């Protein structure tokens, strides 16, 4: 069988699919996935038929690459019939086999060894299973002094991080067992498309959308009980850029309907350099000289310092961050955010007043 350019693309895609232990692919599924791949490269060409994929697999098993491909039965979700059915699926018998496997060059081995050595020093990340074995296999020595240290908030079940990482990278639907701090005895079960793991303020968060709708939801890892892969369900990619969610917020919590606020605040001479060198948000900028003069005229009680602006949606983390500077940072507008900070300050004063009353 002559191997042309399109055939190589088919073999490469089939090699990827047959190596995948996180999804079950029938012959029809393999045909569909290969056609999806070809459609991206050759949108004007016709699809390949099931028979072509059968011939490709026969060639891979025999004269072409001597691949050992096993047939097995798995329960899969049929989207057209909307029910679970038993399918005859295919995969490599040896999970490490690949028709495109080649020896690493010494440069590649060195770069990979250094990467694993660095990753192994990141104490703030849960340990991935097999990392030490991979490091030693590439010649990385034991006992090297750490060069980087990340502060971490230890998780009760560190395996969850690795399992979620795998589910995201393998595009696998999951069932998440979860509880809130308010009602820890009530266990919620969600079927999710997992998209991203993100760290903020010493905690890890999973961003995912529910199978029932497309809205992104945030799940803190420290409230997760268990995660179960659902290979019978088809994964759905997020249509859009996840990073766009974080462009408009401080922290992790976000609300689709919340508007973006233009927030003007003053920072005293004591804290202005901290805010300059570590911006509260990526949108932060210093108010112009002309507008600064107008603001000092509007607020004559302010002395020295600097005025800044950020453009953010309101959430819990925004209010907490703006409040954390105490008297060294004052929000000037909008009034509703200023009001929330004042209410927080009033609540603190009341609580401290109660302490003084009891002590006296």
Defining traits:
360 residues; alpha+beta; Arc Repressor Mutant, subunit A; SH3 type barrels; 11 helices; 11 strands; elongated
Provide a descriptive summary of the structure in words.
The protein is an alpha+beta fold and 360 residues long. It folds into 4 domains: 5-92, Orthogonal Bundle (Arc Repressor Mutant, subunit A), CATH 1.10.10; 103-152, no CATH class; 159-246, SH3 type barrels, CATH 2.30.30; 260-356, no CATH class. The chain has helices at 5-19, 27-41, 50-61, 106-120, 131-137, 159-169, 243-246, 272-277, 289-298, 316-323, 335-359; strands spanning 69-78, 83-92, 174-178, 188-200, 203-210, 216-220, 224-229, 260-267, 285-286, 306-313, 329-333. The strands form 3 sheets. A 5-stranded antiparallel β-sheet has the order 6-5-4-3-7. It has a 4-stranded antiparallel β-sheet with strand order 9-10-8-11. Strands 1-2 form a two-stranded antiparallel sheet. Strand 4 (188-200) and strand 5 form a beta hairpin. The longest helix is centred in the last third of the chain and has 25 residues, at 335-359. The protein is elongated, with a radius of gyration of 28 Å. The model is unreliable at 121-127 (pLDDT under 50).
């Amino acid at each position: 069988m002559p191997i042309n350019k399109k055939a190589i693309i088919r073999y490469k895609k089939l090699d990827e699919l047959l190596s995948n232990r996180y999804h079950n692919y029938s012959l029809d599924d393999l045909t569909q996935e290969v056609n999806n791949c070809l459609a991206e490269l050759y949108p004007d060409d016709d699809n390949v038929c099931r028979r072509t994929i059968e011939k490709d697999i026969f060639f891979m098993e025999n004269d072409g690459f001597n691949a050992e491909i096993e047939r097995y039965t798995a329960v899969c979700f049929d989207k057209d019939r909307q029910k679970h059915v038993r399918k005859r699926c295919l995969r490599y018998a040896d999970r490490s086999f690949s028709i495109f496997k080649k020896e690493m060059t010494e440069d590649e081995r060195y770069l990979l060894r250094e990467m694993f050595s660095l990753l192994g020093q990141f104490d703030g990340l849960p340990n991935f299973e097999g990392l030490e074995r991979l490091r030693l296999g590439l010649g990385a020595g034991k006992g090297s002094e750490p060069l980087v240290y990340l502060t971490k908030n230890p998780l009760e079940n560190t395996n969850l991080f690795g399992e979620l990482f795998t589910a995201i990278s393998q595009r696998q639907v999951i069932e998440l067992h979860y509880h809130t701090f308010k009602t820890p005895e009530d266990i919620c079960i969600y079927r999710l498309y997992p998209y991203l793991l993100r760290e903020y303020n010493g905690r890890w968060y999973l961003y995912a959308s529910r199978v029932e709708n497309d809205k992104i939801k945030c799940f803190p890892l420290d409230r997760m009980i268990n995660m179960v892969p659902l290979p019978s369900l088809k994964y759905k990619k997020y249509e859009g850029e996840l990073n766009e969610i974080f462009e408009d917020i401080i922290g992790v919590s976000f609300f689709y309907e919340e508007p973006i606020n233009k927030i003007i605040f003053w920072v005293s001479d004591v804290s202005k350099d901290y805010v300059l060198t570590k911006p509260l948000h990526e949108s932060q900028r210093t108010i112009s000289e002309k507008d600064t003069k107008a603001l000092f005229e509007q607020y004559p009680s302010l002395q020295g310092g600097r005025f800044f602006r950020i453009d953010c949606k309101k959430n819990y983390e925004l209010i907490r961050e703006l409040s954390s500077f105490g008297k060294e940072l004052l929000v000037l507008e909008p009034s509703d955010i200023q009001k929330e900070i004042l209410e927080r300050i009033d609540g603190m004063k009341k609580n401290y007043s109660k302490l003084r009353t009891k002590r006296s």
